[in-house]
């Protein structure tokens, strides 16, 4: 059940740029539109991203040892097996299976709707041959709940620039056991279509906040029970 609250704020878009410091030895190159998630209490995994001159990062996969503040590039064999050149994707960790689900995004200006799984025990990649109505999205949100991947919102790649691109307000769910996508039936007022929002799981509630729709910046909160 969706429960809306809050308001929307319209704002004029403006381009902004900020110089990024060059990476020190043994750290990731500068990037944005990457994905990062914890894979245990002491380790985070950085995947993909786009660097300077709109070029995909070649050093796409890193581990961060949080307690020691130490970046570690992931081994060459794992790098080659991973989905390369992704940006605008999501990386979501399932603590029960110790797997990271990478979904969506853009790769070399092509739509990317595959699901890759990174097993953080063996550090091996698995490409899922998913069934059902497979969404093609970027700048969406993704959350794990009861071993399923909940994907909301986002924009449809390659349709137009982000300023005018059509957005989604559909909730897609991926079931890893059966490797199938489905759309659950929900009640209540749906959030407006959006991209670049946040989604956080709080017990049995999925909290969706903010985002953007064309030139409209959003500050509304929606809760899916």
Automatic annotation (TrEMBL):
Source organism phylogeny: Eukaryota, Metazoa, Chordata, Craniata, Vertebrata
Protein name in the entry: TYW23 protein
Top-rank taxon, per record: Eukaryota
Keywords: Kelch repeat, Repeat
SUPFAM superfamilies documented for this protein: Kelch motif (SSF117281)
Entry-linked InterPro entries: Kelch-typ_b-propeller
Species this protein is from: Toxostoma redivivum (California thrasher)
Pfam families for this protein: Kelch_KLHDC2_KLHL20_DRC7
Keyword Repeat: yes
